[in-house]
Write a structure and sequence with these properties.
5 strands; alpha/beta; five-stranded parallel sheet
Length: 141
């Protein structure tokens, strides 16, 4: 908190931290849900990055079934994500489908992005960072 600019609020519980949040990010090794749908306000977005085993959970069934579910890979979540497998939540779209414009980003809805990570995403992100760095350094010379 000492290096963060702007207000910081320390919360006593997950519930307190997320009740009025527009964006919630989970990056845990949880084996049981730690984030519950009843705590997430309508229209919020959840990035769920942890619990990457078929029998691990970060999110409860209510959140998984009532939110619009985006994933990086349908095949990946159906074999590796306990959040998706155990809740039997329906995948609305892969991230690539949204980027291509074949599926919409439903920003007015409560959304979950369940990410297990993909090498191509890492490669593209690294290329983007490098290209931006290169442009910035050419402008300085």
């Amino acid at each position: 908190a000492e290096t963060v600019e702007g207000p910081v609020q320390i919360c006593a519980s997950v519930k307190e931290a997320v009740l009025d949040a527009d964006v919630v990010i989970t990056v845990t090794l949880a084996t049981e849900p730690i984030l519950f749908g009843e705590w997430v306000k309508p229209g919020a977005h959840v990035n769920a990055v942890g619990a990457c085993r078929p029998n691990w959970r970060e999110l409860d069934d209510e959140l998984m079934k009532n939110a619009v579910l985006y994933v990086d890979s349908r095949a990946g979540v159906m074999s590796e994500s306990g959040d998706v497998i155990l809740s039997k939540a329906e995948v609305f779209a892969e991230l690539g489908e949204v980027v291509k414009g074949t599926k919409p980003a439903l920003c007015e809805k409560t959304t979950v992005f369940k990410s297990l990570g993909m090498a191509i995403e890492d490669t593209v992100a690294a290329k983007l960072v490098y290209d931006c760095w290169e442009i910035e350094n050419k402008q300085k010379s």
